[in-house]
Structures are given as C-alpha cells and as structure tokens.
Amino acid sequence: MGQEPRTLPPSPNWYCSRCSDAVPGGLFGFAARTSVFLVRVGPGADVIPGTSPFRVIGELVGHTERVSGFTFCHHPGQYNLCATSSDDGTVKIWDVETKTVVTEHALHQHTISALHWSPLVKDLLVSGDEKGVVFCYWLNRNDSQHLFIEPRTIFCLTCSPHHEDLVAIGYKDGIVVIIDISKKGEVIHRLRGHDDEIHSIAWCPLPGEDCLFINQEENSELEIPNGKVIAQTPVKKGCYLATGSKDQTIRIWSCSRGRVVTTLKLPFLKRRGGGIDPTVKERLWLTLHWPKGQPTQLVSSCFGGELLLWDLTQSWRRKYTLFSASSEGQNHSRIVFNLCPLQTEDDKQLLLSTSMDRDVKCWDMATLECCWTLPSLGGFAYSLAFSPVDTGCLAIGAGDGMIRIWNTFSIKNNYDVKIFWQGVKSKVTALCWHPTKEGCLAFGTDDGKVGLYDTYSNKPPQISSTYHKKTVYSLAWGPPVPSMAPGGEGDRPSLTLYSCGGEGIVLQHNPWKLSGEAFDINKLIRDTNSIKYKLPVHTEISWKADGKIMALGNEDGSIEIFKVPNLKLICTIQQHHKLVNTISWHHEYGSQPELSYLMASGSNNAVIYVHNLQTVIESNPESPVTITEPYRTLSGHTAKITSLAWSPHHDGRLISASYDGTAQVWDTLQEEPLCNFRGHRGRLLCIAWSPLDPDCIYSGADDFCVYKWLTSMQEHSRPPQGKKNIELEKKRLSQPKPKPKKKKKPILRVPVKQELCDGNEEESVKESSGPVENGVSDQETEEEAREPELPCGVTSAVSKEPVICTPASLGFEKSKITINNKVTLLKKEAPKEKSEALIKKRKARSMLPLSTSLDHRSKEELHQDCLVLATAKHSRAEPKEDVSADLEERLHLGLFIDRATLYRMIEVEGKGHLENGHPELFHQLMLWKGDLKGVLQTAAERGELTDNLVAMAPVAGYHVWVWAVEAFAKQLCFQDQYVKAASHLLSIHKVYEAVELLKSNHFYREAIAIAKARLRPEDPILKDLYLSWGAILEKDGHYALAAKCYLGATSAYDAAKVLAKKGDVTSLRTAAELASIVGENELSATLALRCAQELLLARNWVGAQEALQLHESLKGQSLVFCLLELLSRHLEEKQLSEGKSSSSSYNAWPAGSERPFVERVTAVWKSAFSLNSPEQSQAAFQQLQDIKYPSATSNTPSKQLLLHICHDLTLALLSQQVASWDAAVEGLLRAVIRSYNSGNFTIMQEVHSAFLPEGCDHLRDKLGDHQSPTTPAFKSLEAFFIYGRLYEFWWSLSGPCPESSVWVRAAHRRTTSVEQSQQLDNVSPEETDPKASQPEPSRTLELDVRLTEEGEQMLNACKELFSEEHAGLQNAQRTIAEVQETLAEMIRLHQKSQLCKSTANGPDKNEPEQEAEQSLSSPQNQCKEEKNEPVSLPELTKRITEANERIAKFPESIKTWPFPDVLECCLILLHIGSQYSGFVTQEMQQQAQELLQKYGSTKVYKRHYQTLCT
Question: Which 8-state DSSP code applies to residue 1054?
C-alpha cells in the first residue's frame, strides 16, 4: 500500500535546452515552473521493496519566474551543488542538501536561454542569453567575464569535457561556434550547415578523433566546407562534436578540421494511429546524449517522442535502434526536450527524459527499456475524487485539459497513472465517480461542458448536449427528480448526474441519454415550493448518502435542504454570508449512525460550519425552517475554504482545504484542530481522504502539485496565524505571473479573456501563467483548434507556429473598416494652402469646384467653350462626334445645355467630392438632382449616413425614412453610439427594439428610463430590466443600487437579501427594516437578529437592543441579550470575565447591585420590556423554546458560550414567571451542564451563586414530592449544585493561607515536611476535570481548621452525589471511551511501525521526527505502559459489547440528564478526609471507597484510589 508521502509534481518546463540534470549516486533534478524538483533514484530512494525505485524528495524554491536552465556540478565532492537560470534574470547556485541558495548573480540584462556547469573547472558556470551575450562566472572567487560573440539568439551551450577553455554555442539560426574563453571568447570554429534552431550540443566522451572510423572520402558529398577557420592553430588533439537541430538532422563535426563529417537525417517512424506525412513539417525538438565511454553510440529524440540509439560505426547506413521497441506504449507520446544520464549507487546506467507529454521517464541503457515513469501536472489541480467501487483509484482533474486516474494502491508502481484527454479540451474543474457503476467517471470543465468517461475503455467520452454558460463548479450523482418535460416519467436510471455551473444553475443530466436536453431543477423547486421571489444563484450541490436529501449552496451564503422526490424545501441555513464553495455530508457507517446527519460547509469566509440536521429531517416540517446556529464551528483558517472531506475511518473527523495554503484535520465533535499540512506552495483547491489508509490524505493546489501526506508526520496542529501566514502569502506571490512578451501581431483576445476570467479573474490570470512555463500549451496534436485560445504570453521565442485569430465579432470588423476609411479620406482632404487661407477656402468651398475651375482657365479656352456651346445649342440635328467629345471634356457646359448633360456634370462633381473626402457635398448634389433614395442607399452601404441625411429622408417617403433610420441606428451601433441609436429608433416608434439595444449593451439606466416613460407599467420588459440590472450590480458589489432595482421589480425579498449581503451592521439593519416594511417578517427577524449578533461581538449592547426592537418576534431574544448584558456587567464587576473591555456601551438600566441578581433581571424586564403579565412571559417563552443550541465543548468561544447559557437561563426565568417549575429546572440544568461541558467552572459557579443563592430547596418545594417527569432533572441539578459547593469548599482549603470562611474556622500551626509531601502527592485526577488538575500549592503554614455548621451541612449533602446508578452508567461510558482510545493507539502504533520499517536508515529521516518518536516514550507514557498489559482485539470487542449491554439496562431518565462524575466526587471527599480528619464521616469515606473499588476500573481512577488508600 505504501506508507510514505508522495508527490505528483508540476510538468518539467518545455522548450529549454537544459532544464534537467543528474549526478552519480542517484540524484535527479528538473525545472518545473519557478522551482526545481529533486528526485532520489535507485537504492537511496528508500522505497518499499518491489516498487519503483525513486522518490520526489524536495523542491528548490526562490525564483519568481520560469526556470530556464538547470545543471549540477559534476565534480566529486561537489555533487550537492547545482545552478539554475530563470526568466527573472538571475542565476542561482544551490546546495541541494539544505535546499538553500549559496550565491547568485544577475549579470544578464536579457532573458537567459542556456546554462552549463563546466565539467573540468569546478567553480565555472557559463550562461548565454537571447541577445547573444555570454557570461562566465567563477563561483569561488566571485568573478565574471562578459563575452559577446555574435548578435544572435543563443539556444544552447555546452562546455568541453576535454579542454577547460572551450565552449560550444548553438544559435537560433543554425550557426554553431566553438569559442576559447581564455582568449576573450575568440572563435575557434564557426560551424555552418544547419539551417534552423540548434536544440542540443553533445561533445564526444573521448578526446581525439581516432575513436570513430569515419571514411572521409566515402562521405565526401557531405564534406562541403562549412565555414572558414579563423584560428589557424588546430585544437589540441581534436574532438568530435554532435549537434541536433530543428532542421531534422544530427551533424557530427570534426573540431580539428572545423567541418561536418557525418549527417544523420531523422527517420519518419510509423506509429500507432497512422504514419507521418513527410511533407508536413512536424513539431520537433532534437535533443542528444553521447553516452560516457561509448563514442560509437549516440542517443537522440525523434518526431513523436521516440528515442533512438544511433550506431556511428557505420554512419553511412543510418543504423539506429529504437528504445523500448518490444513493449508497446512505453515511449513518450510527444516530443522529448531533455536527456540526462544517471549512475545509481548500484552502478546501473540510466537515462532520464522529459517530454511534452508531461512524463519523466527512466530508461535502462543496458536493455533500452523503460524502468519507470513519473507523471506530472501541467495546470492547477482542481479536483480529486476516489472511486467508491475500484478502491484506491484517484481521479485528478487539472487545468491542462487532462484527467488522470492514479491507482494509488498499485503494488509495483507508485505512480500508476492513466491519462484521458479526448473530448476534454478545457480545464477540468469537477469530477465525480458513479457510486455503483465501475469505471464511470463524470467530469465538468471550465467552458461549461459536462461529460462521462468509461475509464476501462479507450472510447472518447459522452458529452452532454446541454452546456453550462460558465465553469462547472461541482458534480453529484443522485436519484432522478421528476422533470417538467412531458413524458418525463417512464424508464429512468436509478441515478442521474447533477451539475452546478458558475451561472448559478443546477442541471439534471440523464446518463442514458446525454444527447437529450438536461433539466433545470429550479423549475421543480419553484413549482413544488410555490416560490415567487428570485431563486438564489447556486454554487454547490451535495446529496446525502442515502439519496433522500439534497443540499444546495448559494452565492449569498445560504444553504437550502430539499427532500425527494419533488424537492420540497424543508430547511434554509443562514450561516455563511459569502459564496458557498463546498458542502460535505458525513458518511453513514460508523459507531454513531446519527452522525450521518452532520453536514459540513465552507465558503469564501474562513470559518467552517457543521450542522446537525437530524431533528429537521426527521420532523419533516410543513413550512421551511430557518437555522441560524451551527452545531459546531471550526475556526482557524485565514482564507476561504475550497474543499471539505469527512474521514471514512473515523467518526466526526474532517479535513479542510483553504486558500491560506494549508490543509487542516479537525475533530468536529470537540471543535478541536488536530493537524495542519503546509507542504503546498499555493492555494489549496481540493482534498481527499484515502479510502484504505486512515493516516493518508491527498491534496491538490494551484502550485500544479498533488501531495500524498500522512497526518502522523505533521508538526503543526492548526493553521498558521500572523507572520507565518504572511510568509505563505509571499510564497504565493512568488508564483509566476503572466509576462507580456513583445509580439509582432496583436492577438484579439479580449472578449475570450473576459469570459474566462468572469467570476474568478484572479485564478484565471494566475492559471494562464502555467503554459508560459512549458512553451506552447497545446494539449494534444489533435487539438490544434485550441491554440487561438491561448493566453497572450504563451507564444514564446521558440514557438514557430503562427497563432491565427479571427476578429472577435462582425461588429468589431466593421467598425474597424469604417474608422480606417475615415482616416484615409481625412489624409487626402488636407489642402496644400497655408493655414490662414484654409478657413477662407473652406468658407468659400464651391459645391461645383470642377466647373468653377474650368471657368477660370485661359481666355482662349473660354472662347472655345463659347463656340462649342453655340454649336451644341444651335445644331438642329444630333451633335457631331467631335462636338460630343468636346462636351465630355468641357463638363461644366452642362449648366447651359440640357438635363442629361447636367446629370453627367453632377456625377463627375460628386465623384470628385467622394475622392477628396467630402461625402456630405456629394449627398447635397444628389439631393439637388432629386435622387435622395440613391443617396441614402450609397451612404448606408459606406457607413456614411448623417443626421442631416436622415432628417431629409421623409422627402423620399415614409418607408424610405423608416429604412434610413434603422440603417443609421445600425451604423451608430458599429460606432459604439448606442444611446443615440436608441433615440433614433424611438423616432420611428420602435420602443422595444430601442430598449433591447440599450439592455444588450449594458445601458440599463437609460433603458429603464425609456421603458418607464413609453411602456405600460405592467409590461414584463420593465421587470426584466430591473432584475437583469440588479443581478449585474449585485455581482459587482453595488448592493444598495441592486436593492433599488429589485424594489422596482417588486421583488422586495431579493432587495432585502442583497442589502444584507455585505454583512456589516448598517447594511443588516437597513435590510431588516426594509423587509419589515414590505411584510417579509421572517426575513426581517432573521436579519435583525444577525445585526444584533454582530453588534454583540463589538460589545455594543445599546445598538444590539435597538436592532432587536425592529421586530416583535424578537422580544424573547431581547430578554436573552438583556440577561447577557447584566451577567457580563456582573462578571466584569467581579473581574472574572475574559472579555473585559472598556469600550462596552451598556444600556442605562438601573443597576441595583445590592439586590439579588434574579430580581435585578426581572425588574429590568418589567421596566424596559414591559414584561408584566404571565401571558407576555409565556409568549416570550414560546418564541425562545424552539431555538436549539448545540452542546458546548472545551473549544467553544467564551462569548458564544455565554450567549447560549443566557438563552437557557432566560427560559428558566420565564418559566418561573409563569410558575412552570419543571421547565425552570430544565433550563437551569442546561445552563449548568453547558458551562460544565466547556470546562468553564468560573461561569458555573456564577450561575450557582446568582440563580441558586440558597440552593435548590425552594425548587423542591415548588415541584412537590410527587414523582414528576422532571424529578431526574431536579436531582441532576441538585447534584451539580452540591458538586459546585464541594469544589468551593475544597478550594477554600487549598489556598496558601486561607482565612476563616462560611465553611471553616481557621487557626495557624506549623506543618511537617512529611505532611507537606503527602499533600503534594494526593492530587485529584487530571483527566476528569480541568480545574481539578491544578496541583495544590505547597504550604509551610498549615491551618488548624474546624468545620462550621454550614460546612457540616454541605458535606452531609454530598451523600446525594453517591448515586450508584450514575456511577455504573459513567463507568460503562468510560470503559467504551477507554477501549476506543486503546484501539486508536493500537492503529497509530501499527502505522508507526510500518513507517519505521519502510524508512529505516533512510537518508531523509530528520531529527524532528526522531524527537517526536522519543517524546512518545516519555516517562509519563512509560509509566502508563508499564501497567498496561497487552490486550487482544477480541478482548476489547468483548469489553465494548458488555459496556453497551450495561448502558442499555439503565432507565432513560438516568441516561437523559448528565450527572457530576460520581467517582471524582468520591476522590475529592477522600482527599479532604485524608487531609483534615473528622471533616468527612467514616461512613461517607467508606461509601466513597466502595464506589471507587466497584466502579473505578479505568486506569486513572485506579491510580488515584491506590494513592489515597495506601
């Protein structure tokens, strides 16, 4: 099963020449986003035998942007050093053992693209950037050298393993140079031959050129001179160099000659799914590895992710071997970026590869087979879901558009992950397995898609034909509800799929017919419950395990509980006041079946609430109940809650994931934080508890990681507060941000971006940074259509594929054309005259400029005009051809001849106006001509209609005018003048069109003004406008204006709800007043109470009472708050209250502190609240008795505890007012038990002294002697009273120098050291009572104390505490608790031993863990364990069964009301008796001893009994 933590890391970065490396001994590192992940490989990984021998051991965190290069130091003794380069401009040197930065430099001014640690000089780092600058940095002397060889983009560089000064550099354009850094970067060789990017450079592992027998003559056709040798001195001994390029070739160069000796062309391999078309240029990254000591072998990547081992002994034959040729599906499925060799501790030669398919693979160089695969994530981990059928199958939904199924219980492979991508094509935001059908997985995506995958087949998923408009938030399987469609009944599946989307709709999908339309359950909810107001926006759906109850979480923070089959609303929980993110029901199995009614919920607030809905569900109320008090409150996180999951192994144990970067395990029943996981570097998004291992939890976050972690290994118990939380915030801020890159062509992404970011802008923007790390983020080759949707920063320097984007809309395109035309025409318009003349020219501009200019020619021309005109006018027949030609040249004569000639003249003049950018003059000429309709058509086609033209349109007739106005309105829309367009539509009485135009372009205010002015008041359009605008305002946080809109739409309920959304005191008060005005009494009361509670937290008592006065039904609450205020003042006067504050604003009620407390309360009730008659008291009692508060725990906040106690006390006092003494006893008892359960004995004592100053005798008198149903409750109350007095008595004796009191008279005497030591030894049991655990202070003076009469009476009354029935019941309950504790301890020790076995002698076992183990065997524990005999499981089971049988025999009256711990009281009395002889009678001591002997079977009582009786 694997009892060690695991990590599913982010994907290795794409398109980097060297971003992974390994060193001998088995340490491998790869760059992923802004950090480097370290993996221990081989025997040192300390994994369970038989599983894959590797483990992710840590992360190097420090860069703020993408890590572009990573290299280890390969010098023995320095394997712990490594270096990284990043887009943040720094190069950092790290110590991997401490995971800290040793030193760093920021010498580069441009993006660093290559990095290498010299294999010969142990402190030399060489790095290059995109502008061609190379820096050599010597670590030990902190010295650097700047080299600028070529003004080209460097793609890769590799230092020579044979000559310490030589570095080979590959450029983007295919050039390779070898430089000598000792000679200021002098170029030794410039190697030309490649014509595209150089991806990789590998030096031959052996020096000299004798290791390869390459026939130079035979390869003469390949030996074209590739560049002149600049340095005439040959390199010592020479060496071979291999380069891999995007031009699909590998070239091997001779360094002695500076020329290519062999060219290897990559083969086109046939793969499953069809061959490759050589004419299509495939995506390629060609990386190389020349194995150490194997000069005749070379490893390279290929087109589709295959790895090839080339045989260089016969290079002309192009002989190669395919890695993993025998086993199908072991190769990478996408291009490979990096190859690095690794020698393990057991001398295995391995090769590690990183790829675009997001896998890291390890290859055995001896067999060329894949040893193991480490999968990784390329996006946020949005969702985790364990299969309920195939145990251990964990589905992971990520932002890279893929679903991963991780078999977490695979024995041989720790990372047995299957990937599904077909049909997804978007971020996977929700997952849910079918409860009973094997392999059936539902998924939801960021673009609103819902689908079903069969994980046991290779078929593409079924996709629902109904999409959500926004992100799918959650999915759930539940019983089908009757749809509203005709014929909806009939043959239906037993379970249907429910999806909740970001637009607030829940859809029911039929899994048998996903092609059919999904059903919006809001229709059924509205019809079943006759809801008139606007339904809330749903954000979460969760079904109870039995399929009978559905919970819906809403944007306003409310949770609604519905009952099948018709979704009847039975309850609304008004607890959260922000968007509900997650709801989780407790499982149905376990030792306490009633826990299945627990429902935990988390919202955008940091508090988790748990509600117990047993009473509501079982009572099935006629009208919906509103719950405003949680069963348990879990506080500790400092940011919003994103996911919750109940432990399937425990009762009431919950895990929560939060944006504060941590996951928290809670004991919900005790409200106690148990352990906190802080391993993520981002905001947590999802959480899942392992179905088989109670210690194991899986969590996913926006750091692209999924962690498996163990609760037993966590140091912290609660989320970080204060400074630590700020550190986490800094960590998150160091996550990569989208970096704007310089682009030649802007991508029109705005509309898509807005849509993606809508509702969760922060997350979407942050997510978009992910693909930047990995170059171009296309999910699979088949998904090229997605590429236009990539974020702007994605197309990096190395991506050559053009990103084609269509304009966002036709409107955008048209408006662009219009603007361009105008710009062009305006340019032509500018005349050449001086600016002074410009104004005069414009004023005097002629309508007929061509005619005018022709009339200003030379005298000869003008005379000729006269002759031509005379000939044309006076020739009786048709004018001759030459005359016609003359007339065409002299168009201005049209003024003087006939209409046809004039029309020709006007036509030419008009064209001139258009060419010069004066369409308005052209339009006027056409108007003169009388062709207005033609003018309007031309102007409309060219987008040049004007107000003047439209104003003249009626001349051409009514229909032409209407058409012209509509065309002008369209034109104005393209120019973004929507209001003007609407005004023109109104002029032709198109009111609805005008309103719709304004609404669709978000001009709601103007649309409402028009609709209100022109339409009937009852027109539904008006209501729709108000509601639409209100929804948008609500989303943007303009709550007051949104409320006005809802009031305008007569949705007063929604108006009050939206006003209350902000949650501050003034908003809540206004909302309550508004709800009261419009008659929504229940809502008004709820809001007024919320307002009062908020004021109560600020200790503004006056404001709280004013808020409660808003509604008559809150009179009972007013009395509770009044009592709480008086009790708080009373406690403050005694300086007992924890929350003492000078800023409290108390009501000016008469204090009367000399009177008894109860009388003071009733006096204020009468004077301030007119509570004079029993009828009024009865009415207030009825209001309050329906409110049930959960029982208290030691973690209940003191303010909340006081409020709940005062609620019980108010019920008790009101019962006394109406002489209902049974209810009075129960109310007082509840208040006492509440303070007892919380461990707050101070308040318990105050309740006794204030409400029972004379004891319980007066209540006994009122109840009478008869055996009423309340008798057990009264006995319990009386016992608690005596119990409290007993403690007061004991404490009075325990003081360092007590004076005489009501209980004792004291006189001093010396004490012996023997007595003193006895006093210190005899301490009451720690486990039973918090106060009792305080050891008695040592005294050097002892008192000669004697009992007063009252003291004797009190001790005699203690006989009431010796209830044998209660002692037996408590003993049985303690036995069950002790057995459960023993079982838990056995499980924990078993897990610990398993963990110790698997990590024995592990290199990563750190000191804190060892210290934690040592602390388990502390003296105290050893002491316990010595007395502990090993107990078998059957023995424990037998004990529990016997104890349960004993409990069942007790009458219900005994079990109903708690009773003080009988044995604890026995111990205290025996202790007093041993200290002060004569105080406790022998008879009582003997009775106490007998009870202890009979029922003190648990360890704690045995120990203390032995101490007292020896």
Answer: H
- Tell me: the pLDDT tens digits for 481-527? 887 444 445 567 889 999 999 999 999 999 988 888 999 999 999 99
The position carrying tokens 């759930």 is 476
Cα–Cα distance measured from residue 1170 to residue 775, given in angstroms and rounded to the nearest whole number: 75
Given a contact cutoff of 8 angstroms between Cβ atoms, the answer to whether 1026 and 1055 are in contact is no
Q: Which is nearest to 462 in space by CA: 510, 402, 400, 390? A: 510
What percentage of the chain's residues is helix, strand, coil (to nearest 5)?
40, 20, 40
This prediction's pTM: 0.74
Distance CA 244, CA 202 (A): 9
Residue 1427 or residue 258, greater confidence? 258
Any idea what the Cα angle at residue 734 is, between residues 729 and 737, rounded to 5°?
Answer: 115
Sheet with strand 100-105: strands edge to edge: 67-72, 81-86, 91-95, 100-105
What mean pLDDT is predicted for residues 395-421? 90
Report the half-sphere exposure of 72 (CA within 13 A, side-chain side). Answer: 25
Alpha-carbon separation of residue 194 from 61, 190, 242, 245, 258 (angstroms): 37, 12, 12, 7, 14
Identify any residues that bridge with 307 across adjacent strands, giving them in sequence order.
Answer: 301
Which among 138, 147, 143, 141 is positioned nearest to 169, based on CA atoms?
147
Which structure tokens are listed for 1336? 């008695």
Distance (Å) of CA 1338 to CA 46, 1298, 1311, 1342, 1468: 54, 13, 10, 10, 18
Pairwise CA distance, residues 985 & 962, whole Å: 9
β-strands 176-180, 186-191: how paired?
antiparallel
Q: Which two tokens stand for residue 924?
A: 């006027």
**Contact partners, residue 113, CB within 8 Å, separation at least 6:** 17, 68, 69, 128, 129, 130, 153, 154, 155, 156, 797
Where do runs of H (alpha helix) occur along 622-760?
Answer: 723-733, 750-757
Taking CA atoms, 208 is separated from 78, 203, 235, 260, 295, in Å, by: 28, 11, 10, 15, 11
Q: How far, in Å, CA of 787 to CA of 777, rounded?
A: 8
Can you give the pLDDT at residue 1311? 40
φ/ψ of residue 705, rounded to 5: -120, 150
Give the list of residues 6+ apart from residue 456 with CB closer than 8 angstroms, or none: 438, 439
Q: Could you count the other beta carbons within 10 Å of the beta carbon of residue 1496?
A: 24
DSSP state of 97: T
CB atoms < 10 A from the CB of 141, how many? 8
What is d(CA 1329, CA 1489) in angstroms, rounded to the nearest whole number? 20
pLDDT given for residue 799 in this prediction: 39
| CA pair distance 648, 630, nearest whole angstrom | 22
Task: Print burial letters for 463-487: b (CB count within 10 Å at least 16), e (below 16).
Answer: bbebbbebbbbbbbbbbbbebeeee
Task: Tell me the C-alpha distance between 1300 and 1400, whole Å.
Answer: 63
Alpha helices (H) in 478-613, listed in sequence order: 521-529
Q: Are 159 and 204 in contact (CB under 8 A)?
A: no
Q: Which residues pair with 322 in a beta bridge?
A: 308
Name the strand (E) or helix (H) holding 1108. helix 1101-1108
Average model confidence (pLDDT) for the chain? 79
Buried b / exposed e across 82-98, counting CB within 10 Å, b at 16+? bbbbbbbbbbbbbebee
In this structure, the number of other CB atoms found within 10 A of the CB of residue 39 comes to: 24
Q: Which residues contact 403 (CB under 8 A, 6 or more apart)?
A: 395, 396, 397, 419, 420, 421, 424, 428, 431, 441, 443, 453
Helix/strand/coil for 214: coil
Which of 343-357, 1208-1222, 1295-1309, 1430-1444 is most confident?
Answer: 343-357
Q: Both tokens of residue 250?
A: 């590998």
- Burial class (CB within 10 angstroms; exposed 0-12, middle 13-18, buried 19+) of 509: buried
Q: 625-627 and 538-543: which strand pairing?
A: unpaired
